[in-house]
Amino acid sequence: MNNNVIIMEHPLIKHKISMLRDENTGTNEFRTLVEEIAMLMGYEALRDLPTEDVEIKTPIETCMSPMISGKKLAVVPILRAGLGMVNGILALVPSAKIGHIGLYRDPETHEPHEYYCKLPSPIDQRTILVVDPMLATGGSGSEAVTFIKQHGGKNIKFMCIIAAPEGLARLQKDHPDIQIYVGQLDRELNENAYICPGLGDAGDRIFGTK
Ligand code: PRP
Ligand code: URA
Fold it and tell me: pLDDT tens digits for 148-157?
């Protein structure tokens, strides 16, 4: 495993992912869990946000103390399912800007198709956190990162809750320059390009469709 991939080891994340996988977990609980996992993972993924010392007057004295510096973080969910992770990140960084990339997988070819892209500017000066619960073939994630680069994005991080080895390998190969955060690395893809054991269709489970 390259060191641009970080797989979460925290027992709280593992526990919540197990609850997500359970087919008996309903929409409401599923949504809450996705948000909570995104927040826990975000804490790890944002540990290198730049800071600068600013002057603060405490009730005791004035001191220099670090605060997040630079342009605001951009969170970019891949629609639809990535939307479920946004509030978890906003709980950590309420001032983050939100971009959107709309991609869907063709059910036959499993290839991603773009239908929407809107990013906060100036995108080249922001840390960009791309979020999607699932990295299966890696087609959607890789394409999303390519779009962001085409729009000028440079400092890109990708965060998913569950990855298949195939998708992780593709994202690493296509974008060796980005940092990837994975909640849990699963066994393999099945013949329909679903992750095994996975959690099923993340978008449908978040939004209660199907
Ligand atoms: C799911 C998921 C990822 C993609 C992963 O989205 O949220 O975006 O599949 O698969 P891949 O790695 O093989 O590209 P889907 O296309 O089902 O769209 P949805 O979020 O609108 O349900
Ligand atoms: N998209 C999902 O939502 N789940 C999978 O297992 C694969 C792609």
Answer: 999 999 999 9
Locate the ligand 2 atom nearest the alpha carbon of residue 203 and give its number: 3
195 contact partners, CB below 8 Å, separation of at least 6: 134, 136, 162, 163, 164, 167, 186, 188, 189
Say what the pLDDT of residue 131 is.
98
Q: Please tell me the predicted confidence (pLDDT) of residue 107.
A: 86
Residue 59 Cα to ligand 1 midpoint, Å, equals 51
In this prediction the pTM is: 0.96
Domains with residue ranges and CATH for the chain = 5-45+76-207 (3.40.50.2020)
Taking each helix axis from N to C end, the angle separating 83-92 and 27-45, rounded to the nearest 10 degrees, works out to 50
Question: What backbone phi and psi angles, to 5 degrees, belong to 169?
Answer: -65, -40
Contact (CB, 8 A) for 186 and 11:
no
Indicate if ligand 2 lies below 6 Å from the C-beta of 201: yes
Interior/surface letters 165-176, b for 16+ CB within 10 angstroms, e for the rest: ebbbebbbeebe
What's the CA gap between 196 and 95, in Å, rounded? 36
Helix axes 165-174, 139-150, angle to 10 degrees: 20
Decide: 198 in ligand 1 pocket, CB within 6 A: no
Protein residue with its CA nearest to atom 7 in ligand 2 = 194
Structure tokens at 28: 């409401």
Distance 81 CA to ligand 2 centre (A): 10
Q: Ligand 2 pocket, 166 CB below 6 A?
A: no
